[in-house]
Structures are given as C-alpha cells and as structure tokens.
Write a structure and sequence with these properties.
Elements: E1 24-31, E2 50-52, E3 57-59, E4 65-69, E5 75-78, E6 84-85, E7 97-99, E8 120-124, E9 130-136, H1 144-158, E10 165-168, H2 180-188, E11 194-196, H3 215-221, E12 226-230, E13 233-237, E14 241-243, E15 249-251, H4 255-265, E16 273-277, H5 288-295, E17 301-305, E18 312-316, E19 328-332, E20 362-369, E21 372-379, E22 388-391, E23 395-397, E24 405-410, E25 418-423, E26 430-431, E27 433-438, H6 440-445, H7 458-465, E28 474-482, E29 490-499, E30 505-515
Parallel strand pairs: 1-8, 9-10, 10-11, 13-16, 16-17, 17-19, 23-30
Antiparallel strand pairs: 1-4, 2-3, 2-5, 5-7, 6-8, 9-20, 12-13, 14-15, 18-19, 20-21, 22-24, 24-28, 25-26, 25-29, 27-28, 29-30
Helix pairs in contact: 1-2
C-alpha cells in the first residue's frame, strides 16, 4: 500500500548525551483507513503491535500506544505484523521507520526536551500461508553503467513476478552509496515491496565510527537491523558488518543486535519459522554462537546471506558451535553481479559475469509455506529450467572412453542433492559422485587470451575484461561420472537428472560423438 502523501521522515534536532539518556520516545500504531499517513480522529490504534528502537522491543497497549527509550541512533521502527502492510515510498521501499535525526544533525547540540509523538500507520492486507520471495545477492553496481546491467539483466524479467516481496542481501553498490537512488528506482519498477540489507560495500567511507557507516543507507532504506513478519514467517534483517577504527571491517554482531533479537523473540511462538537475513555468511562471524543460542532450541529456522559470489548450502552443526538437535541450514545465495560484472560482453552489451564456482549470475526465489520452504535458483535471462552445465568432450575415440569423465555443475546443488545419468534412453540411471573441483568453463574463461598459459595472469585479464577477475574457486556442487566402455562408435546423448533437497527435479542433455 503506497501512502497517498507518503510518510515523511521526521528530522528533529536532538541532543543525545549521558544527561539525556532517560529521554523517551512515544507514539501510536494505527489503522490508516484513508491511507493519508496521518492518524485522523476516526482512526483507531492497534493493540499488540511490536515497536523497537533497535534494542528494546515493546508491544502497543489497547490504544495502540507505545513508549521506548531514546537511543543514540534516534531511529524507531514498527515490526510489520502478519496480515498488515506498511506504507511504501515511490520505489516500493517499506516506510516502517522514523528517523529523529539526520546524519548532518548528529553533532548539533540543540534539542527539544522530548521528541514529537511518532505514529506508524498500518494497512490491512491478506497474506497467504504459501508465498514466494525474490532474493537478490550483491548487485554491487560500480557506476550507472552497472546499474543498467542490473536493470536489464534481472530487474526487467522480474516485472510481473508472482513473488509478494523482494530482498537485496547487501552490497547494493560497490562503494558508492550515491547510487542508492538509481538502483532502488530500477528495482522499484518490479512493483512489489522491496527490503534492503547493508553490505560492506554500502558504507560511508568518510565515517569515523562504525555507527556512522550506515548513515546514507539509513537515509534511503531505514534501519540496517530490523524485522518484519509475513503470514506465519518471521524475518530478521541484520547488519553484520562491523568496521574497526582503521576502516577495515569484520563480520559479526553487536551487543545491541543480539539484545534486539532476544527481546523480539520473547514475543514469537516457538514453532514459527525464523529467517535470519544478513550479508556475510553467519559461519564467518566470530560471535555467531550468541545468535545460535537464541534460535537453536526452536524447531524451525533458516539463515540467508550472499557476499561470496558463489552459491552454497551450508548445514551448520557442532563444528561451527551449533548445539541444536539437527543442523541449521544456511543458504549462501547467488549474486546478481556474478563475478562483479566481469567477463566478455554478450550481444546485448552485458558481461557474462559467471560466478567463481561456475554458476551463472542470477537470483533466487524462495517459497515459504508455514514452517517449510524451498529454494530455486534463476539464472539471469535464461530459462527457469537451466539449472546445470554438463561437461564432456564433443568428440571421443573409443580408446579414450576408459579415462573420459562426465562433469556436471548443478548450480544450486548441495550435499543432499541426487545426480544421475543415463545414455540415449531413460533407463539404467547411474548415480554420479560429488567432487570438489574448479568448474572447467570458468577456468577456460581465465585462459581466453593466447598469451595466457597455465599460470593465472591478472594484468592481461584486466585488459580483456575491464576489471580484474578472481581466480576460480573450488565448486562444491559438481558431480562426476565415467562413460560406459561399451559405447559404440556414433552419436550419443548423455542425460542428466537431479533432485534437490526440496524434491525439485531438473533434467539436461548433451550430445557427443564416439569414433573408432
């Protein structure tokens, strides 16, 4: 629901100091019947709605009123409950927050004794138990040229999606927050609500403290740690980028974030599905166990990140510090930018941008149904069933059959995937074995220039691609099999089928020739 007048961010100059630590903010959450963003006399407050200052979480009373301490951040947000919507701005960004102080006002010492009341409008909406969400990892635009890559490569094909909202998992841009406007304007054309997370390349480099690194992000998107609910699912968005005084960052969680999660989950029934959203994979965070302690006794949880420019399913167990009765599923999502928009330009002017693990750039579609979920990968501008690459020489001699291998990169595969092959007909399917190796095609892309030999030469690649590409990584979603030694001379077709951990099946084929 787009509020007719929009919700204006209230900028009140206020002094935050030890002397003012007891200041409070207050307001009302109300049902905005005429959608004007204002609480009119005939509009009632809504009870039992959660509001937070980023640490404390309180529930509105029977009149919809709330009261919270005023913190250094001076930022308050309503946690959107199920079957309600918040207002959206013109770029479909949820306006679930109020910022009491702009980044330019942080050092202003004048302030009123108390901030004005902060009212949050909500709108009724039906939310089906089964719904889909678009997940964009690392669009990471360097300049308007790459904003256009994002727009043409993934945004345009998502217009008309059946997904009910979308999420960008950080690294919205590549160290230029001034592009937040352009990229959110493009993504807004998809036409669904869109939530944003903070990544290490989204920060204000001129900031002298970790607290100031997300100032521009807050201006465009609101708090960098927040939560919302949709149908029966709880989403918690976390800024897990902590900058040191030297400007370098480490992945982790602040004490305030840990307190926020603990305070919020006090209101959430144990059986609900908890989805943690973050930029850097949780396994890279040194204080991840503080988060684990808050969710590991709950039966239903999922966490999602990006950052690696690879696609990977991690099943977190005791070796990572998890103490739950069964492993926790952490999904490292595919990236929109692939390998940072590197690669040869195609016929419409967009780089191939293949990720380091050999999977194409793209995005994910996650479908939730109560406490269950399934994940599908979608390669940019490719058919929905394009889910794997098969590697096998086009021409083989019969003498080479004993040593020839079939390699299959299943882009969204995991250790729980089943991958099988057969030849020329759908019978006698043979299970393939997982293997950790470099994808042959992404390796070939690093040897395109005739001056390149077996040794990687970054300078030459910069000249070819415009940007330096990383050396390929070992992919953890490749399977291997051997060819039947009895294949006769002639033309053959290898058929591959895979079934993932969600029961989703895909097939692909590759034709090759055998000579005497």
């Amino acid at each position: 629901m787009i509020c007719k007048k929009g919700i204006q961010i209230i900028c009140i100059i206020c002094q935050i100091s030890i002397a003012s630590a007891q200041q409070t903010a207050q307001g009302t959450v109300f049902l905005d019947l005429n959608e004007n963003g204002l609480k009119d006399i005939d509009e009632s407050g809504i009870a039992k709605i959660l509001v937070s200052n980023g640490r404390e979480v309180v529930e509105t009373n029977q009149n919809g009123s709330w009261l919270l301490p005023l913190t250094d951040d001076s930022l308050f947000f309503v946690i959107k409950p199920a079957n309600y919507a918040t207002a959206l701005n013109e770029n479909r960004i949820p306006q679930h927050y109020q910022l009491l102080r702009s980044s330019e006002q942080k050092n202003d010492i004048s302030a009123p004794e108390q901030p004005l009341p902060i009212d949050f409008p909500l709108y009724s909406q039906a939310e089906p138990a089964r719904f889909s969400v678009l997940i964009y990892g690392d669009p990471q635009a360097r300049g308007i040229r790459e904003v256009n890559f994002i727009t043409h490569d993934v945004v345009e094909e998502c217009i008309g999606t059946k997904a009910l909202f979308g999420i960008t998992l950080g690294d919205i841009v590549a160290d230029d927050p001034n592009l937040f406007a352009e990229i959110s304007q493009s993504i807004g054309k998809i036409g669904i609500p869109w939530y944003y997370l903070f990544g290490n390349h989204d920060s204000d480099r001129q900031a002298t403290s970790n607290a100031g690194r997300d100032n521009t992000f807050e201006h465009y998107f609101g708090p960098s740690t927040y939560a919302f609910e949709f149908a029966g699912v709880v989403f918690i968005a976390l800024n897990n980028i902590v900058f040191n005084s030297d400007g370098k960052y480490r992945p982790g969680f602040t004490d305030q974030q840990i307190a926020f999660i603990a305070n919020y989950l006090r209101f959430i029934p144990d059986e609900k599905l908890i989805v943690l959203l973050m930029h850097v994979p949780i396994v890279a965070c040194k204080n991840r166990e503080a988060i684990f302690r808050l969710i590991e006794k709950r039966p239903n949880s999922l966490s999602i990140s990006s950052h690696l420019h690879e696609q990977l399913h991690v099943f977190i167990d005791k070796k990572f510090g998890w103490q739950g009765s069964r492993p926790h599923h952490h999904y490292i999502a595919a990236t929109v930018s692939g390998s940072w928009w590197c690669g040869m330009i195609d016929e419409v002017g967009i780089p191939h941008a293949t990720m380091n693990d050999g999977a194409p750039n793209g995005y994910s579609v996650i479908t939730f149904d109560s406490t269950s979920y399934s994940i599908k990968f979608k390669a940019a501008r490719r058919p929905a069933d394009y889910q794997m690459n098969i590697y096998l020489p086009d021409d083989l001699s019969r003498a080479a059959l004993d040593t020839a291998k079939v390699l299959v990169n299943v882009f969204a595969g995991s250790e729980k995937s089943i991958v099988e092959m057969t030849f020329d007909q759908y019978s006698d399917w043979k299970r393939l074995d997982p293997v950790i190796t470099i994808d042959p095609e992404i390796l070939r892309m690093h040897r395109l220039s005739p001056v390149l030999d077996e040794k990687f030469n970054g300078q030459v690649l910069e000249e070819i691609f415009g940007w330096k590409m990383d050396y390929p990584s070992n992919s953890r979603h490749i399977w291997q099999g051997t060819l039947p030694a009895a294949l006769a001379a002639g033309t053959h077709c290898v058929m591959i089928r895979t079934t993932d951990m969600f029961g989703q099946s895909y097939e692909a084929q590759r034709i090759f020739r055998v000579s005497e």
